[in-house]
Specification:
The chain is mainly α. Helix content is about 65%, strand content about 5%. It has a five-stranded parallel beta sheet with strand order 2-3-4-1-5. The chain has a three-stranded antiparallel beta sheet with strand order 6-8-7. Strands 9-10 form a two-stranded antiparallel sheet. The N terminus is likely disordered. Pfam families: AAA_16, GerE, TPR_12.
Length: about 1000
Amino acid sequence: MVLTCIAVPQTGFIGRRVELAVLDNAMQQTLAGQGRLVLLSGDPGIGKTHTAQEFASRAEQQGMRVFWGRCYEEPGAPLYWPWLQLLRGWLEETDSVLPDEMAGSDAGVIAELLPELRQRLPELLETPSIDDPAQARFRLLDTLTRFWQQTARLQPLVLILDDLHWADTASLKLLEFLAREIATSPLLLLASFRDNAMSRQHPLSDTLGELSRLPHCQRLTLSGMSRDETEQYLGSLAGTLPLIVVATAIYQHSEGNPLFMRELSRYLLQEGLPADGVLPRIPSGIREIIGQRLNALSRDCNSLLGMASVIGRRFELELLAGLALPETKLLDLLDEALEVHIIEELPQPGHFQFNHALVRETLYEELSTPRRMSLHRKAGERLETLHPHDLQARLPELAHHFAEAAPDGTAETAIDYAERAGDRADTLLAYEEAVHFHHLALQLLEQYLPQDSERHCRLLLALAEAHNRAGGHADDSLGNFMQAVELARQVGTAADWSVPMLAHAALGYESVGWRIGRHGDRAVALLEEALAALDPAAERLRAKLLAALCRANIYCDRPQAAHAALRQATRLARRLGDPRTLFEALSAIVPARSWPEHLEERLAAASEALELVHQAGHPEWAVGDMSGWYIGDLMEDGDIDTARAVLDLHLQVANACRQPFLQAVGLSAQAMLATHRGRFAEAEQQARENLIVGRRFSPEHAEGVFGMQMFTLRREQGRLGELQPVLRHFVQNTPEAAAWRPGLAVLYVELERLEEARLEFTYLMTDELKAVSRDAMWSTSITYLAEVCARLDEAGYATPLYRHLLPYVGRNIVFGAHTVCYGSADRFLGMLAATLKQWDTAERHFQTALAMDERTGGWPWLAHDRFQYARVLAQRKKPEPARALVEAAEQTARGLGMEALARRCATLRETLSTRPVYPAGLSGREVQVLQLLAAGRSNREVAERLFLSPNTVANHVRNILAKTNTANRTEAAAYAIGHGLVENRP
């Protein structure tokens, strides 16, 4: 028939020319190396797939390789299904196995998703496992992204994802990840979806929000054909039907939708027109039209299609044969449906699909509930028969079919397959799907087997872990863990499974809680309850519980309880002789960086834990929860060499695994060390790289770290004015930003806005710093406040600040674990002591600071030490040593680009430039030496105080005796007192 040819929307129509022109432009940009993402949306049947097909043909003519991934609407579709189709399409076409750039470990990661690859590469080694679920999924997404990028470099690519509204969440996550990385690759992503198929809760809704922010993303919405285009579409009917009347009627009913026009046209061809030429009532709904077309088929054909609809829009002959008739009769009925285009053959032999999802939905909804359940059961059983050795890949389908048939007696089988499908999804890092299947298993269990408490508890734990791994569902995860706890409590110790599951629920609750910064009080209670109920023989589990209890007490700020748990955990782990258990016990105390008095204990525990790592040959143990904290402690202790060694180990593992969190930790620590050395450009580059990597994993955390590092850099560069409006607005309008108020006070001081600084400072110092959180920012906050206090000369507040900073004496100040090091804490203690006019104490602190920052190579902080010390010496009327220090500070500041400090140094240097006239022709340096001699200092002590060599001091002493005509040091001291050269000390 004529309509068979014109049923496909013709791309020559004006309405499609526009879209194809946009797609052609995107293709040219891609060929020029600028990757593009095009989102093609519209109503069902509007022509999205046909537009993509026409564009694919054009792209192939331009020398691009095109691969298709089609999403299935049926719940049993395999995980990552559209991406599996893309990979299989590439595997079928390629001559080589992998791009040369892909390492063996990458091939192993891809083979986990695509087993066919391992058949080509049987020598592939197993990919090392990663404990952290988020990092494991990142490795998969990153590997697949780099695979497509490197494949596109060999030949420009078009990847088409059709019917994206049916994609599983794991596939959407991969699309988000890849789309962010293609801007500089010759790769075009084209994704089509129904924009009427989504609520705000639909997973694709969030994905579209993420994708729409990308600068290389473009969205095209296909609309219906116009009245004139409809007439063109039906033009070939002019000899048979009155064109104007038909076109008008069809346009009114279809609103230009090509699918609706096609079905209405077929309906008219089947029904014909009355002799008077007046159209009969055309059904208002497309389902009615589809129903009328189906009515034209035989009863057996309709029955067969109803069975096929239970399988899904796409179905395979082999599976359908198990539900229906003998093969010969079945093929005849399929031919009947093929002839009228109700179904169509797919390229894979023996596979078919309904020509539109609405056809399948219409057939499925017409089935009675008992009939549906029976067919789903038969479909599941047929799958078991057909794939006895490959059930793993079919688990989602099996779970779906047996779940739909659960009232028909398949509930236990459905629960088993749903649980296994959840475990399989977890293995494939499809955590959102793992949540779905574990939740399905739990629902079925609660409905059909509520008495199975052990399985109920196990499924709750599995669901809690799945929620945690999926990310962004911490509250759901904690809630599931608590449900498992309640269930274990109800059963009591009568069941041998209840106590171990209570213990695992408590461990899971604590693990989720501390990672999101939740207060540890509830975790402590759960862990103590589990420990009390645990069999004494379960020593390994007891050691794990004690280690978790140590960490939970850290997050309750209970140092004594934390250390008591630590001692028990390590003692038990040593007796067990298990390196991993001992490592976990030792590393439990490492996050306690807010307790400065326990630094030595943390360092000793981390050092022993790291030695266990080396002995066991498992560096990945340390590169996770421990290494970042340990680097911070080593920096605080001033052990830069060991900190660099731990960082090198960290980077080695993080880069090998390509885990974003670990890479972000490494980049953050690198930026901290670069800043410490005064390599500001390098530090900024690493901070920006850290922001890019960290946003993939935890945007909020990454932006916080980046903000802190850039605040530090811009401050040293004298560019804080650039941040002032943003920081002030952030602090004043974001409730959780109160922790940044000390930074705002410092910013005001730097910008000479002293009254605003005083208001912030006074507010923060009220009630013994009640407004300042005792968290990871505590040491930084009191350091900032010490600087503000000294600048404002607020002696009344200097004493409490000095007391809070004193535990850090002899150490560096480090923000968080590995974000920023501010050099020696003694510099800030010296500034506070000077504010209190405790000059000797201040000088001792500055001398300690100078030694620490010079030893650790903290050149920016050494410049600050010298400047602050010079200010104190100037106040004490010691211009010569003050001048020497400030000149050295200024030289360093200018060399490193520390413009703000350089300006302050220049001002102080000018103040000191007027040289006083001393009696007997004494120089300023000789007066300094004489003053120290009068104070009873030895030559060696004088040398240390004035940064001179002992020989130089001896020469100065001989000159002093000669100029003052004195015989010895005692007479010289009397001369100094008599001529007013000795300062009156407080």
